C-alpha cells in the first residue's frame, strides 16, 4: 500500500508518495470529477495527493474535516463510495471507476486547501 508522507505544510498541505510512484494509474470520480490515483493508493491518499483534503464536515460545528490519523481510528475521512456512506477513506483501497463523494450526512460549508 502506498503511504502519504507530509513533507512540508507551512501555509498549505504538501504530500508525496512514499513509494510505488510509478504504479499503474487508477481512474476514479470525486464529486463527479474524473481523477487519477495509483494502484496501491487508499482513497484518502489519492484525494490528499489530488489536493482534495476536505471529505466531510463536523457534526457539531460544521467545520471542514480532513483525514487525520490515516490508520482507521478517527473517522475524519468518512466518505460515500458507490452510494455507501461512512466508508473510511484511509483504509479503503482505490479501485478503478469508484464514484466517491464527500459524506452526505453533513453539509459541506467550505473547501479549504
Ligand atoms: S483518517 Fe482517521 S479513520 Fe481515516
TrEMBL record:
One Pfam match, given by its short name, reads Fer2_4
InterPro entries, sorted? 2Fe-2S-bd_N, 2Fe-2S_ferredoxin-like_sf
Keyword line: Oxidoreductase
Coiled-coil boundaries: none
Q: Which GO terms describe its molecular function?
A: iron-sulfur cluster binding; oxidoreductase activity
Protein known as = (2Fe-2S)-binding protein
Amino acid at each position: 500500500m502506498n503511504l502519504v508522507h507530509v513533507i512540508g505544510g507551512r501555509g498549505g498541505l504538501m504530500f508525496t508518495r512514499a513509494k510505488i510512484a510509478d504504479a499503474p494509474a487508477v481512474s476514479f470520480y470525486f464529486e463527479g470529477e474524473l481523477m487519477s490515483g495509483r494502484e496501491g493508493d487508499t482513497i484518502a491518499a489519492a484525494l490528499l495527493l489530488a489536493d482534495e483534503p476536505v471529505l466531510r464536515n463536523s457534526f457539531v460545528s460544521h467545520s471542514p474535516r480532513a483525514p487525520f490519523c490515516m490508520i482507521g481510528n478517527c473517522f475524519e475521512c468518512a466518505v460515500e463510495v458507490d452510494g455507501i456512506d461512512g466508508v473510511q477513506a484511509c483504509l479503503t483501497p482505490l479501485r478503478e471507476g469508484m464514484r466517491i463523494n464527500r459524506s452526505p450526512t453533513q453539509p459541506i460549508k467550505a473547501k479549504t486547501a
